Amino acid sequence: MDGIFISYRREDSAGYAGRLYDRLAAHFGSARVFMDVEGIAPGTDFVEAIERAVSSCKVLIVLIGREWMDIADADGRRRLDDPNDFIRLETGMALKRDIRVVPVLLEGARMPREDELPGELSALSRRQAIEISHKQWEATTGNLIEALDRIYFPDQAKVALDSNPGADSESMHWHISRRGLWLAVGLAGLVGLALLGGWLLTRSVPPQPLLTRAAPEPAPTVARAAGRLEARPGHIDYGSVALGSSGVASITLHNSGDAALPLPALEIEGDLAGAISLDHQCPGTLAAADSCRIELRFEPRQAGPANGRLRIDRGDEAPILIAMTAVTEAETATATETPGSAPETPLTGPAPEPASEPAPEPASEPVRSVTPAVEPPPAVATAEPRILSFTGKVSGSRAELCYDVRDAEQLRILPQPGRVRNPRKDCVTVRVAERTTFQIIARGGDRNVSDRLVLTPQPPAAQPVTPSPDTVVDNRLPQVRDRWTYRVSGRWASTPRRTIEVSTLSVGANAVEELLSLVDADVRRTLDQRHVRGPVAYVTQSRPLGTEFSPYLAAFGGLESASDWRGIPTPDSNSFWTDWYSKGMVKGRESVTVPAGTFRAVKVEISSSRRASGSSTERDREPVRMHYNIWYAAEVKRYVKMVRTTTAASGQAIDTDTFELLSYRQQ
After folding, report:
1. Which of 171-180, 399-408, 551-560 has the lowest mean pLDDT?
2. Residues 6+ apart with CB under 8 A from 516
3. Average pLDDT of every residue of the chain
4. How many Cβ atoms sit within 10 Å of the Cβ of residue 541?
5. Could you tell me if residue 213 is inside a domain?
6. N or C, fewer C-beta in 10 Å, the chain?
7. C-alpha torsion sign, points 569, 509, 408, 417
């Protein structure tokens, strides 16, 4: 009854689960730690094995990633809403039997609210959570191990606190057998020294009456580990910023001590208060020797010079004060960014001084200084930002916009919601009252890249969609309201077969807006709405279909310009299985037969690979290779067949997904 059970979703946190299993097994022993991959023998009923394991454990760890609550099944239903969902069964059983449940939040994932959980899981929202980060793996998993030590060895922790009230209970780490051995040796040594000292004393000093007992020597003071916060640079100068524009600077917080620090409070004082917003992805606790970057965005409200300072509280120490200066020009600049346009202001270093004479300094602000007090840091070359995917899903008048971006320091989605907090990968919800074109703008260094997505509040079956003004009439290209129906099947007999319909909402010179729907049996459900680039060789990704290689590449002439590719843009499988490298080539023409008919098609082969980064327990499920065979037919204007094989680090095939065209209809 003292096991540790790790509950996780493979799509959301399989990489973290394997590494955490290795970490906990090394500390507590492999016999005490349980996860589904390692502990279930072939032929065993999975549900019964899970029930036995949860019933026999003392602690259940629930790994919660960013998609833990929203992952859906093949029918588009949220898995947590299924009473037979394994995660729901594991967690609900532990809560019902008063087993200690410890939520572990991965990479900034938020704790679910009570109203977002099924009834039997509502108590989970009231459990104290622990955060784990890939970049601070040793420190953050160490916090979890310390918490588990206090659960398993409460008596030892209490003895330690009673004997040393000044000790930090968070840092108590007990190894019972080793501590007991050294304690016994130490006591025996003290007794021996005392007897020897008494014998020597009686031999050399005559006995004297005992008058008083000498006060014991005070215990030596032990220096406790402490964190120390530093910030750089010591001065921020935004230079000249036009009204309607904005400037961005950044500071770096660094913990130079030898213990963790809570993230400090930051406050803007002076003229710049209210005109500067803070943006960061910093953890709640800054580990020893770790750093964190915070962006400060200046959006001027009136022309003229402005001064202020950033105050960073450090608890018992004196606060850090960083002087801030800026000059705002009266000319109004266009606030909307366009693809390829120059950035509003540099992201690093001070902006150049205006050509005109600078405005005089106000006497009331001694902190004002146009020249920086310290030398600005040298400009650092940054990689050009990349937009790997930008998709949308409409439900009534609400839409969910999802993006996956690399090497961006700032990200905006126009016309709404504007600047987003996470510039890497996330989903945001907006309202769509009418047909709307959304533009995503990724900014890195001195470069901007953008992509577009058109969304409508109703599916085309309910209300015909008028083509966008940039619709191209070309018989080689797909047209609005063209439809393709695919049968999707997997390698394993247990993999559900699905029928997916793809319909076009609009067709531009370089892209297609399409709607994905589930049309199995009598069911018809909208799954996703996405923007697909036409002539570009790249790997796109969606929840209903997973990864695909350029569906419309042949129709847009992408096969005519090259017969092989290197470094094909490829999205990450998740936040842990990253850094895919893809290449491919045209293999020639061949005849292919699918349920929709027999076609003379162009065959393309694509290979994606990455280095294994998981633990030994993940070898059978960590993807390291994906191979695609795609057949394009000119008359269909899309691929007619795609076979996607995924291979694990162990060399075993994880799955083989086959997409076959059942039927198609063209305008």
Report:
1. 171-180
2. 500, 501, 502, 526, 527, 528, 529, 530, 542, 544, 545
3. 76
4. 18
5. no
6. N
7. negative
Residue 453 lies in a domain: yes
Mind giving me the DSSP string for 191-258? HHHHHHHHHHHHHHS-------PPPPPPPPPPPPP---EEEE-SEEEEEEEEET--EEEEEEEEE-SS
In this structure, is residue 179 part of a structural domain? no
Position 583 scores a pLDDT of 93
Quick count: other Cβ atoms within 10 Å of Cβ 502? 22
Q: Are 544 and 518 in contact (CB under 8 A)?
A: yes
Residue 650 has pLDDT above 50, yes or no: yes
Question: Would the CA dihedral through 598, 599, 601, 606 be positive or negative?
Answer: negative
Residues of the chain with pLDDT > 90, as a percent, come to 17
CATH number where 81 lies: 3.40.50.10140
Last residue of a domain, one of 297, 332, 367: 332
Domain limits at 138?
3-152
Domain match, 136 and 266 both: no
Element (H, E) at 309: strand 304-314
Query: How far apart (Å, rounded) are the C-alpha atoms in residues 23 and 6?
Result: 12
One domain, residues 520 and 651: yes
Predicted confidence (pLDDT) per residue in 600-632, tens digit? 999 999 999 998 887 777 788 889 999 999 999
Q: What pLDDT score does 472 carry?
A: 45
Radius of gyration of the chain (CA): 31
Between 351 and 80, whose confidence is greater? 80
